[in-house]
Known about the structure:
Layout: H1 14-29, H2 36-40, H3 43-50, H4 54-66, H5 79-86, H6 98-110, E1 121-127, E2 130-136, E3 141-143, E4 148-150, H7 154-162, H8 169-176, E5 185-186, E6 189-192, E7 213-214, H9 222-232, E8 246-248, E9 263-270, H10 279-300, E10 309-313, H11 317-320, E11 361-363, H12 377-390, H13 405-424
Helix pairs in contact: 3-4, 4-5
Amino acid sequence: MDMLFLPAEMRMAPEVLQRQMEVFPKLIEADMEPDGMILSASPYRAAREWFESQELQSCLLRLAVTGACDITEPGNGVMVLGMATSLSTIGFNRGGTHMIAHAAHQVLNHLGCEFHINKNVEKVIIENGTAKGIRLHDGTEIGARKLVVSTLNPNQLIFDLIGREHVEDKLARRVELLENVFGCIMWYSFAVHEKPRYRAEVFNPDINETEWLGLQPDPDPIHIARECRHAKLLQWPPPKDDYCPTVWCNSMVDPSYAPEGKHVLQNEQLGPPASMFSEKQWLEIGEQYTKDLIDLWKDYAPNMTWDNIIGVDTNTPYDHNRMSNLLPNGTMAGVDRPPHQINENRPTPELANHRTPIKNLYATGGCWHVGTNAGSSESYNCYKIIAKDMNLGKPWEEPGNEEPYSLVEKLKTVRKRVQDTVKKD
């Protein structure tokens, strides 16, 4: 919890370091000591040392890829331990993730916030080194009484919103060198008449309760490692044996995803960066990948044929660029996650604590810690820095809500509820 819900400078507090030291003997007792070899190793290497089951290795490593991590990257080995502890917390939102955005929008409306739709921000208004508001492309200027917060990527933040003239050379160069070509995914949705009926149901009926299912020809995680290598080498398409998509069918649990009697399926697989191909080529790639995926899928679920498919929404990395903060390559992470671009280095050491070179201008989003998701940690950690700088409310310090213990208890409650539901069924 300290690693997830504390910004970089707060993770160095003595009480945080003490908690980490208290956990260390328990890791040794479990024979999972993150020693020098593990810290230097790749996730692929660490998973094979810590777990005997290739199925479990593949499960954890596929989750790492979903976190936009190259599992062959040295220096990220200990990340496997974090993945293992968080695997049981994977879930989804009723009605889809967009419901969270709608709920947040309603809360802000009730608080009197004003929204400007389909209008791009041209610049942050800067006076004497302090952010005073924003200027929209249509010339509208909106003043800021306290602060401005950006959720664009670091390149847009530094060179578009702020301007190169306000930034030191070292930071500008580091932002220019940020890597952003890994974690570009083929992210499709399928409307179908009936849910997939997997061959594995014969010996494993629980497969229909699997929220997040990896398809690969055998349990060996080498297939996932090769998928990462092909992606880093900008090779597309990879050999069919190294297609390792994940698929899911949330409509089996939440009927609001689809009309009665129908289902919605989705998938995820590493693809090439958007800038690698032209728009015409991407249209061809998107169509061909649909065919390739169905050919693969029906090997596992024979009813996954074109007769079962009502329609397909193809989202390639090129399509992801409709979200401007994913430019230019459409990576879901915004920026990649090698060791020099995670934790206290995400996106750079100078920006990691959500402050920018401009006073009262803060930044957050998927390019910041923890990153690669639409989660709460990035914005929550940003607010902690803002609260510290501006002496605002700190509910995590209130009696009964002290962190990280209150967060740990809430997580235990969620896990118990899931366990009790399974037992009841």
